[in-house]
Give the backbone structure.
Amino acid sequence: MNDIKCVKNSEKTGELIGFFVAGYPDTESFLDIISESGKCGIDIFEIGFPSFNPYADGEVIKNAHAAVNAGVSKDIEYWRRIRKATNKPIWVMAYKKDFIEPQIYKDFAKEGLIDALITPDCTQEERKRISEELCHFGIRVLGFVNPDMKIEEWKDCFENFKYVYTQLYSGPTGMYVDSPQYQELLEFLLNYKEVQSFAGFGIKTPEMAQTLIEKGFAGVIIGTAMVERLNSSSEELYKFITEMKRVIKGG
């Protein structure tokens, strides 16, 4: 199983995490896209487990979910092929109804198909329980915070999860936000030096990604902007990844 690559906040070298929906735009080309994207600079793949109701996502990602062959989600052999397509860590993003309630996450753990799990609609208590289950397989469960949570909820998350998905704003993925809602949350986060926090939602440019790394995030998670480039062409996606990586690394 791959180790989860990560850096300390203080190092500010920054991991580039790219979001893709499993099997999109089609089952075979997806495998090639994952392989090539890793070569272009993706450090970690966040792969969306196909959902019939990805309600927390914006239209771009919802449309990608809707276009995927419905059989992909439960095809373990296909997920084995995804695992073999890259030597980079794989984080699965999945909704509770699709992945947790049917107990599919246990099969993925036993098969060694993933390195980490992101469950945006689970409670922190549910994440803690799942984390205890999956730690025996070397799989991390990410905590999840956003600017609208209470300080007590931030504290509970940072004290119980070493890896945290930090949502930069409240709302669906892909929104345009012209003011930083996350500043107070970031200042609170930086008190927890051992926590690796990854910024997500609304990151559209290499310059914004670089700024977030410089402010103290361990990495950036790019979703809608990746899928938009892929919708244009795989070449546009690879160019975007290459430039994103270059700027983040200060090249």
Observations:
- The longest helix spans residues 234-248.
